[in-house]
Amino acid sequence: MEERGRHGERWVKALLQTRVPIRLVNGPEDPVSGASIVKRFREFVPNPDVVVLDGIGHFPQLEDPVGVMEAYFAFSNQIVR
């Protein structure tokens, strides 16, 4: 949590200034970086692209690998045309 205070402004700035498409795939049950990060991402990022994997926590890639891959492939299919 200390890192968020120390680097948060820089991280948000990077999200706002990037020219590459971004999709957040998140497990909302993670008490540290779950639903609260989704909320903040939606507040700061214009036209946020967010996939919330219900019932999933800190390790979405392990807890729901199929859901993560589906979100990834749907995203990559949108941007690679």
Describe the protein's architecture and organization:
- This protein is mainly α.
- The protein has one domain (2-79).
- It has four helices and two strands.
- It has helices spanning 2-17, 35-44, 60-63, 65-79, and strands spanning 24-26, 50-52.
- It has a two-stranded parallel ribbon.
- Strand 1 (24-26), helix 2 (35-44) and strand 2 (50-52) form a beta-alpha-beta unit.
- It is flat.
- The mean pLDDT is 91.
Task: Provide a brief overview of the structure.
This protein has 4 helices and 2 strands, in the order H-E-H-E-H-H. It has 81 residues and is mostly helical. The protein has one domain.
Number of helices: 4
How far apart, in Å, are the first and last alpha carbons? 39 Å
- Backbone shape: flat
Q: Poorly predicted ranges (pLDDT <50, ≥5 residues)?
A: none
Topology, pairings included?
Elements: H1 2-17, E1 24-26, H2 35-44, E2 50-52, H3 60-63, H4 65-79
Parallel strand pairs: 1-2
Overview features:
single chain; 81 residues; mainly alpha; two-stranded parallel sheet; 4 helices; 2 strands; 56% helix; flat
